[in-house]
Amino acid sequence: MNALVAQLRHRLVVSCQAYPGEPMRDPDTMRRVALAAADGGAAGIRAQGLADIAAIRDAVDLPLIGLWKDGDDDVFITPTLDHALAVARAGAHVVALDGTSRPRPDGRTLAETVAAVHERTGALVMADCATLDEGIAAAEAGADVVGTTLAGYTSYTRKGPGPDLDLVARLAREIDVPVVAEGRIHTPAQAAQALRAGAWAVVVGTAITHPTTITGWFASAMADAR
C-alpha cells in the first residue's frame, strides 16, 4: 500500500473547483479554499487546472489529486497522456483521469496512459469511472485508486439524486485497489454511508466549495415553501 494512499483511509478529500466564468474561477481563490478545507479537517485536496494545482501544492501540505478538464468530447477529464504528464509536473501527487471504457482522444489505452504516468513522473493515478466493469478494468490497467466520479455522468449511466453507494459497495468487493466515493455526496450523513459501503476515502466538492450551488439549494427550498 502506497503511504500517501494509506494516509487517506477513511478520510475526507475536498474538491476545490470552480467553473469557467464564475467569480471564484481563480487559482488564488482556490488556494484559499483549499487552505480553509485543510483547516476544517480535510485529509486531501482535489483540484482542477495546472495553475490551481501548482498554487495549492505550494500552500497546502496534504495529498493533492489533480486533473485537467479539457475539450468538448465525452472524455475530458485529463483526456490524454500529455494532459496527465502536465498535471503531475504541476505538482499533483495523484493524477485523476477518465477511467471509462470510452476511446481516449490520443488513441492510447488506459493501461498505456497509467504506465507512462508511473514511469515518467512517479505520480499515482486515480481512474474516474462510471460502472463496475470500468472500475475492474481500471484496476487491472494499473490504476492506484478507482473513483465513482463519473457514475451518472455518462450517456450509459443513470444519475440519481445522491451518490451511487451500490457502485461503491460492489467495487469495494470486486477490486483490490482503494475505492474512492465521489459524486453527489451532499451531506455528512451520505459521506458516512459511503464509508460504511466500503469506500476507502470520500471526495466532496459542491456541498463544501461551490457557494453558487449551495445558495441555489436554499433559494429553491424557500421558493417551494412560498
From TrEMBL:
InterPro entries: Aldolase_TIM (IPR013785), NanE (IPR007260), RibuloseP-bd_barrel (IPR011060). The keyword Nucleotidyltransferase does not apply. CDD domains: NanE. Keywords: Carbohydrate metabolism, Isomerase. Pathway: Amino-sugar metabolism; N-acetylneuraminate degradation; D-fructose 6-phosphate from N-acetylneuraminate: step 3/5. The keyword Zinc does not apply. Pfam families: NanE. It catalyses: an N-acyl-D-glucosamine 6-phosphate = an N-acyl-D-mannosamine 6-phosphate. It is an enzyme of class 5 (isomerase). GO terms for cellular component: cytosol. GO terms for molecular function: N-acylglucosamine-6-phosphate 2-epimerase activity. Transmembrane segments: none annotated. GO terms for biological process: carbohydrate metabolic process; N-acetylmannosamine catabolic process; N-acetylneuraminate catabolic process. SUPFAM superfamilies: Ribulose-phoshate binding barrel. Its EC number is 5.1.3.9. NCBIfam families: PRK01130.1 (NF002231). Converts N-acetylmannosamine-6-phosphate (ManNAc-6-P) to N-acetylglucosamine-6-phosphate (GlcNAc-6-P). Belongs to the NanE family. This is Putative N-acetylmannosamine-6-phosphate 2-epimerase. It comes from Micromonospora echinofusca.
